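Hey team,

Sharing the AraC family transcriptional regulator run so nobody has to redo it. Sequence (121 residues) first:
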Amino acid sequence: MEKIRQAFLSSNSSIDFIEYCSCPYIILPCSQDTQTSDLDCYIDVFYIKKGVAELMFNAPPSIKLSPGEFIFLNRKCSDCFFLTGGQDTEILQTRVVPRGLYKDLIVYYGCYNSLYVLDSG
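Structure output:
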């Protein structure tokens, strides 16, 4: 997680917070009052530190996540995101606000994909 943090900081991004995420972590679709541009301003990064987590994004089936895996979420208004785990599961969450070229790349690629999962390999 520290290497990812340093990479984002060196790209002139800002990090809103880094904290442990309590399960279940649920994001429901936005209300009609939410501006789409508000969601384009940040990326949620989740790191599975310990235990096994289960992720369901927009529709079943769910996928199992192992320690060392990352989830990058560039949320859209219509997205549903469910992240659960057992009592021993530890998940770190950070919210990154990209700037410059990184923001352009995230917004461009985010038009097609809202979710990326990086495995430990």
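The mean pLDDT is 79.

Ping me if you want the raw files.
A.
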